[in-house]
Amino acid sequence: MTVRLPIVVPFSPSIDEAQAPEVPFSALDTVWFQLTGTLCNIACQHCFISCGPKENRVPMMTEATVRSYLSEAAELGVRDYYFTGGEPLLHPQFWTLAESVLAVGPLTVLSNGILIDGANAERARTLFDAARYSFDLRISLDGMSAEENDPVRGRGTFEAITRGIAELARVGLSPTITVVEHRTGMGSEQSRSQFLQFVVELGLSRPRVKFMPLLRIGREAERTHGYDSALAWYSPGPVEEALAERLLCSSSRLVTEHGVMICPILLDAPGAQLAKTLRQSMTPIALRWDACRTCVVDGLSCRT
Ligand code: SF4
Ligand code: SF4
Question: Is residue 22 part of a domain?
Fold first, then answer.
């Protein structure tokens, strides 16, 4: 049997700083927590940060680190929060940390839904009912059948994810379903409306589907291919105001156990580490990475 070892290639900036577009920093509206680092219960073939069950190169955040950033963010007037990973539900203090965040602002949790059994769906409902701010879940599902989803997310994941979604629907919660366009045509108008109908049939009361273009980094670069660095998609100088407003890096930051990074996409990019505190990280960003093209040109927005 051949064992395929994971390859994680940290990607350095490929664009010269003097040539890179610049995104001004407006205000810190959103903080993302890389709650479980790179630990996930599955290992999707298109995962742009190469997460998996044995992947601990970015460690899980300790409760103390989460609380420290939460307190700094609240002082800075941050408006909303995201838990991401990996799979955030793997964090042993997930529920108490979610409760603490919801005491100061809205929270969205990005999950693959596999750990949402009957008991966790009930806990999510209890949290939703008790929360002062809105509590939203985003569940990733990459097809309307096992044939479409499982080749990228892993065998049996379609069944497990849709079971999790059904449990949420049973308790009256309606997560946003996110779909990565891992095949040509998946983002077409027809495909989008079929997916929405599929989500209605899963029983969600407020059906919402968010399609996301591929990020050609991490494991996805091995599954298909990386970016063509020769493509000049950028020009130097400040980006237009409308574009800056849409880009996460103008008003969000990602916090990890090791410090503050520009955004969740650049978790493995050495030059994307900004500072130890949120206050020190509020600076303009030069878009020096090929992955920035997916945000700028393909319109990716990680916000719900
Ligand atoms: S894409 Fe999401 S669910 Fe899949 S391995 Fe990466 S973090 Fe886990
Ligand atoms: S990957 Fe996207 S959000 Fe991150 S710095 Fe580049 S443009 Fe900004």
Answer: no
pLDDT tens per residue, range 241-290: 999 999 999 999 999 999 999 999 999 998 999 999 999 999 999 999 99
Does ligand 2 lie within 6 Å of residue 244's CB atom?
no
* Mutation pick for ligand 2 pocket among 82, 246, 292, 301 (CB with most ligand atoms within 8 Å): 292
Task: Indicate which atom in ligand 2 lies nearest the CA of residue 295.
Answer: 2
* 20 lies in some domain: no
Q: Are strands 259-261 and 252-256 parallel, antiparallel or unpaired?
A: antiparallel
Of the listed ligands, the closest to the CA of 83 is 1
3-state helix/strand/coil string of 61-114: CCHHHHHHHHHHHHHCCCCEEEEECCCHHHCCCHHHHHHHHHCCCCEEEEECCC
Higher pLDDT, 15 or 250: 250
Q: Which ligand is nearest to the CA of 266?
A: 2
Pair 195, 208: CB distance under 8 Å: no
Distance of CA 23 to the CA centre of its chain: 20
Residue 131 lies in a domain: yes
Asked if 38 and 85 count as a contact pair (C-beta separation under 8 A), the reply is yes
pTM: 0.94
What's the pLDDT at 1?
A: 40
> Residue 104 belongs to a domain with what CATH number?
3.20.20.70
Percentage with pLDDT > 70 across the chain: 96
If one residue of 54, 90, 112 were mutated to test the ligand 1 pocket, choosing by the most ligand atoms within 8 A of its CB, it would be 112
State the pLDDT at residue 2.
Answer: 41
246: containing domain: 28-195+207-231+239-296
Q: Report the atom number in ligand 2 closest to the C-alpha of 250.
A: 8
Pairing of strands 252-256, 30-34: parallel
